[in-house]
Write a structure and sequence with these properties.
The protein is of the alpha/beta class and 392 residues long. It has 15 helices and 15 strands. Helix content is 42%, strand content 16%.
């Protein structure tokens, strides 16, 4: 009989914000809570309307807003005086799983040490790329990254979300041996496909035979959204007919829409903003012929799995971490980071519909892993680490 665990999941960001890591935590916590007691510990925010609707417990700790961002950061938790710390210690967790190295993640590590229980840590993000964008000094950003990796070295076990992330761990200064557990998806293949695709055509004024390209994610330059647009500008200049859809919101949305106007591409590029309706999103994935994801920042993005579930393969960049799960020309496509090469690769893919259909089917079969399987792998890791701890 499976042991029912009391699990603490700690993260420095949570709803009402939305990003891939938050979606990962929500889905993992939902699955684990079917057979375990799960508490998600996150910063406090003004809006907490949906907290009581989750199948798991949510604890919000004291936090302050981060200026010019949508984030809140948890206040440092001092052992001797923090009510939050004592409350968490008294919850008698069996295991703690941190998903970030900042104040809330560090708090989870402190609680695990105080209670002498295992702490598991997952790295979801290429911190080096994000920090080098925001910190105008490689020396300073590298110093910050060396500090960030400390909680991972202090954790009992770390999870890499694909094999390529193991090298990233090592580059950051991680000295342990991570285990690979891939991300999953809650998205189901689209039902009533023809009917739903017809609706998408009507909403976005698409013709039945339009070749549709797609990006889904945070609208930020760090994900190479402007590289996509520059490549498509070249494609349009070649006289190639297509429609491009950007789904998402972010700090560079206005800059993107301005660039679309500057390039005079309003006739072939659509921005939808954020889409929360999962059926609508599935229908967009299913309508697209090719998913464009040239990000060097992402480690293993959920959107590429969501696209694959709906038989839409992605075009990634050679050597990028997020392309690690893709076999080129089998379950997806890769090419070098060059606008002209990327443009030509798009043409090559779309002009070979028979091969594209084969790769589309392979993408669905090879990449679409449901969260119940991911939760089972994670639970088994928890049990292994709990047993190791009990023998120390």
């Amino acid at each position: 009989m499976k042991k029912r665990l009391n699990i603490g999941i700690f993260m420095d960001d949570y709803y009402p914000n939305i990003n891939g890591v938050i979606v990962v935590i929500d889905n993992l916590a939902r699955e684990l809570s079917k057979d375990n007691d799960v508490t998600v510990v996150v910063p406090n925010t003004k809006s907490r309307a949906d907290d009581g609707k989750k199948p798991y417990n949510i604890v919000r700790i004291k936090s302050i807003p981060v200026p010019t961002t949508e984030y809140n950061i948890g206040l440092p938790q001092f052992k001797l005086i923090s009510k939050d710390f004592k409350k968490l210690v008294d919850m008698n967790f069996d295991v703690i799983h941190i998903h970030s190295p900042f104040t809330v993640g560090a708090l989870g590590l402190k609680v695990a040490k105080e209670c002498n229980i295992p702490c598991i840590a997952t790295i979801h993000t290429r911190f080096d790329i994000e920090f080098r964008k925001k910190i105008n000094s490689r020396l300073v950003s590298d110093t910050v990254i060396r500090q960030i990796i400390k909680p991972y070295n202090e954790a009992d076990r770390c999870i890499a979300i694909n094999n390529a992330m193991i090298k990233v761990f090592r580059d950051y200064g991680y000295t342990g041996e991570p285990v690979v557990i891939y991300n999953g998806t809650d998205l189901k293949p689209l039902e009533n496909k023809e009917e739903n695709i017809k609706k998408i055509n009507e909403i976005y004024d698409l013709k039945k035979d339009d070749k549709v390209l797609l990006f889904v994610g945070r609208i930020t330059s760090i994900k190479n959204i402007f590289f996509i647009l520059d490549s498509l500008k070249l494609l349009k200049e070649d006289g190639y007919k297509f429609k491009m859809i950007y789904v998402g919101e972010g700090e560079d949305l206005k800059k993107l829409t301005n660039k679309i106007k500057e390039y005079e591409m309003e006739d072939c590029v659509i921005t939808t903003g954020r889409i929360d309706d999962r059926t609508h999103l599935s229908a967009i994935y299913a309508r697209a012929d090719l998913f464009l994801f040239p990000s060097l920042f992402d480690a293993s993005s959920l959107v590429q799995i969501e696209a694959a579930i709906n038989e839409t393969p992605g075009l990634f960049i050679d050597g990028s971490v997020t392309s690690d799960t893709v076999e080129n020309d089998i379950s997806g496509f890769t090419c070098e980071l060059d606008e002209h090469v990327y443009k030509e690769k798009i043409k090559e893919i779309l002009d070979n519909p028979k091969h594209l259909k084969e790769v589309s089917k392979n993408a669905k079969e090879m990449l679409g892993k449901p969260w119940d399987k991911i939760a089972k792998e994670t639970y088994n890791l928890y049990i292994d680490e709990i047993n190791k701890k009990s023998k120390q």
